[in-house]
Design brief:
By secondary structure, the chain is α/β, with parallel strands linked by helices. The chain is built from 10 helices and 10 strands.
Length: about 280
């Protein structure tokens, strides 16, 4: 399966009044087409910065990043034609109805014959009954769903979701998970950042852990769990660890200056790539 996103040695720093703050310090990862990829990390790890670079909203300092084979820094227009981005806050017009928000985006993108597609998305996101109500009357979950539906107009190959369920109630969160899984079945590639490890564990085909600007572990959920279970210092020998156990172990060992389970994950991933011809 080809890699639809390729990131190599990505660096990005921000200038402050007194100093230069490095955020990404050589991050490298790839995402296979038609899969759900979760980028995990603590606050300040650089997740949103990575998403903003990949979606052409920020310029990278050095390294390379390609979307569908196009360089984000040299071919931003071609990249934008293949992606959609839903940020941490819903970008909807509260003075318009849900349907009007979708029509507005379709008009701005100069799409043709989009009315049927709008109706399809309203149904997919369970917004049909509320479609002609003002968005200011919507719940947080409804606003988030409207935002994602708007971003899908134009049929993007890659959907960037930056912490899409933050602030949602459990019922709305689960409903959005179902929608994300449906989008994957439709052939979309989903790039997800999240603070909820349960969310990544349910949705992601592969994950990468970003810590202090670099990728410290990556692989499938099963690889990450198996690596920790096989680690000599893992406490719970008779049960499979959760993704939360894996994440905390990797971050704590990195802080202590040890690679721990992340070393085993890296080796397992390399071996899998060799076998698959990646």
């Amino acid at each position: 399966m080809p890699h639809i996103i390729e990131v190599c040695d990505l660096h990005k720093s921000f200038k402050t009044k007194k100093d230069v703050l490095p955020v990404l310090k050589g991050a490298s990862f790839s995402v296979q087409e038609g899969t759900i990829f979760a980028l995990l990390g603590s606050n300040g790890a650089g997740k949103t910065t990575a998403v903003r670079i990949l979606s052409t909203l920020l310029k990278l300092d050095s390294g390379s990043a390609k979307i569908c084979g196009f360089c984000v820094d040299k071919e931003p227009h071609k990249v934008r034609c293949n992606i959609s981005l839903t940020g941490q806050y819903a970008a909807v017009d509260e003075m318009l109805t849900g349907r009007e928000n979708l029509h507005l985006v379709a008009s701005l993108r100069r799409l043709k014959n989009y009315k049927d597609k709008i109706e399809e998305y309203l149904k997919l996101f369970s917004l049909s009954e509320a479609a002609d109500k003002l968005v200011k009357t919507y719940s947080g979950g409804m606003r988030r769903k409207t935002d994602i539906a708007m971003s899908l107009l134009g049929d993007p190959k890659i959907i960037f979701l930056d912490e899409p369920t933050t602030g949602l109630d459990p019922q709305s969160r689960i409903a959005l998970w179902d929608i994300i899984e449906t989008l994957k079945k439709q052939g979309k590639t989903i790039f997800l950042t999240t603070q909820y490890l349960e969310e990544a564990e349910r949705l992601a085909d592969t994950v990468a852990v970003l810590d202090k600007g670099i990728i410290v572990a990556s692989g499938t959920i099963e690889q990450l769990k198996s690596a920790l279970k096989n680690a000599s210092d893992y406490e719970y020998e008779k049960e499979m660890p959760s993704l939360e156990d894996v994440f905390l172990s990797i971050i704590s060992k990195k802080d202590e200056g040890h690679d721990g389970a992340s070393d085993e994950v890296g080796m397992a991933k390399k071996e899998e790539d060799k076998e698959g011809g990646a």
